[in-house]
Structure formats: structure tokens, C-alpha cells
């Protein structure tokens, strides 16, 4: 299990003041910046791309940037995110023709690679590529929008993913994304997650620090 990490999803930040928002949430104790890329094709919403990632780096953001690709196809955009300073790049297996090749593209470019599983997508392919994966991201909502409710069945899937990761003996983060808040973060951690994406739960409050502290207090149990 990796040390716990809080990864605010900037999807719920104020895009008109994005640099300041990211600064503020990092100063409030966040560990990783979760960066949601939606293409209005793989998911029914349209957000931000490599230019914005690069702009955050130029603005001075040094924290890891965790790029969650909700785009199809994925290979074409991987190079742009590598150049833009992405630290992690994760994609949905059904959004690429060749999962292993897409993972290799990310790793060859020097970023950490991950696979994202929708609530009803099986973890089956994971066992064939576990040696090329640095992060497993389980969606606990259907991707496309912030502010949805956590799907409880994801807890069973987290336990399944945790067992696979532990058996592999590798250093792999197990991230959860969707509907995470102060009330449910502890049960999510108990099911095996170590990295917690939270968008509306953090950016929906005026005091980011108090939410992040409350989450850490729950994790400390
Ligand atoms: C949804 C995105 C999430 C989203 C989470 O497709 O991948 O990262 O921002 O938002 P909350 O925490 O509000 O569910
Ligand atoms: Zn996400």
C-alpha cells in the first residue's frame, strides 16, 4: 500500500482562476493534482487539454499532475501530455485498440502509466499488463461529470484490485475517483484505496484546508 494521497480534481475548480486555485489547494495540503480530460466523444462532456497542463507548469505548479484521459483514441494525445509535464497518465482500456502499446508509450515518455476502470468494466485485462502499470484508477461514478454519488459496489471492486496489486508485489497506486467525501473516505480506504480524488467535496467548500484536514483525520482513523 502506498502512503495515502489526496488528489483534488480541478474539474470542480474555478477555471477562470485555475493557477491560483491549484496553488491554494496545494497550500491547503493536497498531494496530487487530478486533471480530467474529456473529449465529448468518449464521455459526454468537454474540458481541458495539454495546453492547460503546460500552462500550469509554466505558472509554477511543481506537484505531480495526474492526467485522467477520458478520450478516445488515446495514443495521439499521450505525446502532447508528456511534453506538457504530466506526471501520471491514465486511460480507459476500452478507449484504445492496444492497451499494452498505449501503456508503453506513456512509460517510454518518462511518465507513470495507469489504467482506469468504469463502474461496470471488469479488471480482467489488468493481470496481463500489471508489470507496466504504476496506477490503477477505479471509477466510483460513471465518468463525465463531477458531483455524482459514490456507487457502493465499487468497494468490492477495490478489494479485488487491492488483492491483485498486493499479489504482484509491485509499487502501484490504487486510486478512487467519484463521489469521495469526508463521510465515506474511511470506508474507501478500508477497502484498499490509497489515493483519493475529490472534486466537489473540496472545491465546493470555501475552506479547502479544513476539508483536506478532515479527510486526513478520517484516514488516520
Ligand atoms: C468524473 C471525473 C472526476 C470528477 C470527480 O468523470 O473523473 O475526477 O471530477 O468529481 P467528484 O469528486 O465531485 O465526484
Ligand atoms: Zn477523474
From TrEMBL:
Cofactor: Fe(2+); Co(2+); Mn(2+); Zn(2+)
Positions annotated as active site in the UniProt record: 36, 177
Organism (species): Azomonas agilis
Chain residues that bind substrate: 9, 68, 144-147, 177-179, 199-200
One of the record's GO cellular component terms: cytoplasm
EC number, as in UniProt: 5.1.3.1
Keywords: Carbohydrate metabolism, Cobalt, Isomerase, Manganese, Metal-binding, Zinc
Keyword Secreted: no
Gene3D superfamilies noted in UniProt: Aldolase class I
Superkingdom of the organism of origin: Bacteria
InterPro entries: Aldolase_TIM, Ribul_P_3_epim, Ribul_P_3_epim-like, RibuloseP-bd_barrel
GO MF terms, alphabetically ordered: D-ribulose-phosphate 3-epimerase activity; metal ion binding
Protein name: Ribulose-phosphate 3-epimerase
Pathway: Carbohydrate degradation
Entries under PANTHER family matching the protein: RIBULOSE-5-PHOSPHATE-3-EPIMERASE
Cofactor note (record): Binds 1 divalent metal cation per subunit.
Amino acid at each position: 500500500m502506498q502512503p495515502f494521497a489526496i488528489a483534488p480534481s480541478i474539474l470542480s475548480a474555478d477555471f477562470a482562476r485555475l493557477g491560483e486555485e491549484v496553488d491554494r489547494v496545494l497550500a491547503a495540503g493536497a498531494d496530487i493534482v487530478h486533471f480530467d480530460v474529456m473529449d465529448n466523444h468518449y464521455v459526454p462532456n468537454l474540458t481541458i487539454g495539454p495546453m492547460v497542463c503546460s500552462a500550469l507548469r509554466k505558472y509554477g505548479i511543481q506537484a505531480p499532475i495526474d492526467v485522467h484521459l477520458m478520450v478516445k483514441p488515446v495514443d495521439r494525445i499521450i505525446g502532447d501530455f508528456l511534453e506538457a509535464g504530466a506526471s501520471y497518465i491514465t486511460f480507459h482500456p476500452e478507449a484504445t485498440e492496444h492497451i499494452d502499446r498505449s501503456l508503453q508509450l506513456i512509460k517510454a515518455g518518462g511518465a507513470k502509466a495507469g489504467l482506469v476502470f468504469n463502474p461496470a468494466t471488469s479488471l480482467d485485462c489488468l493481470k496481463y499488463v500489471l508489470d507496466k502499470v504504476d496506477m490503477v484508477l477505479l471509477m466510483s461514478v460513471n465518468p463525465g461529470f463531477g458531483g455524482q454519488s459514490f456507487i457502493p459496489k465499487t468497494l468490492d471492486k477495490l478489494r479485488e484490485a487491492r488483492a491483485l496489486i498486493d499479489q504482484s508485489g509491485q509499487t502501484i497506486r490504487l486510486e478512487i475517483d467519484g463521489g469521495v467525501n469526508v463521510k465515506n473516505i474511511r470506508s474507501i480506504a478500508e477497502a484498499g484505496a490509497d489515493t483519493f480524488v475529490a472534486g466537489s467535496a473540496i472545491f465546493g467548500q470555501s475552506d479547502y484546508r479544513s476539508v483536506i484536514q478532515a479527510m486526513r483525520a478520517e484516514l488516520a482513523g
